[in-house]
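Fold this sequence, please.
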Amino acid sequence: MGVYHQDMYRYAAWLSRDKAIAEDVVQEALLRAWKSLDKLRDEGSAKQWLLTIVRRENARYFERKRLETIDIDNLTASQAALLAVEDNDELDDMRQAIYELDDEYREPLVLQVLMGFSTNEIAEQMGLKQGAVLTRLHRARARLKEKMAER
């Protein structure tokens, strides 16, 4: 399971949009996975199984907690620095545009582009039909292009 820790964290960070929450989600997901290890039938699907647990833990986290929200346009310099490690305006704009996507579009895009999942795998993980995944990916890219053109 430790082999996939970075993938789990990266996925959780994109889902939650917060590094601290992502760490909590991954920790809970690893604990849940450890307790359910006997349910993993195919070691080849371990990564997908773990990311499904991360997705569910992320949903549980937000169901349990009412989080204080902040306006990203009013971040201090130190807060804004947490969104990107290096100073790259184009990369910052792209990250911000991805963060601004609705969850239903951001999640399949992150799964495909950052995690390398096929549309079939994404459909299975999200409980959707492949056509719905393709539609969401198309709309996510279109919205991303619009947001980037505005910047």
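The CA atoms of residues 81 and 87 lie 9 Å apart. The helical segments are 5-16, 19-35, 46-64, 77-81, 89-100, 103-113, 119-126, 130-150.
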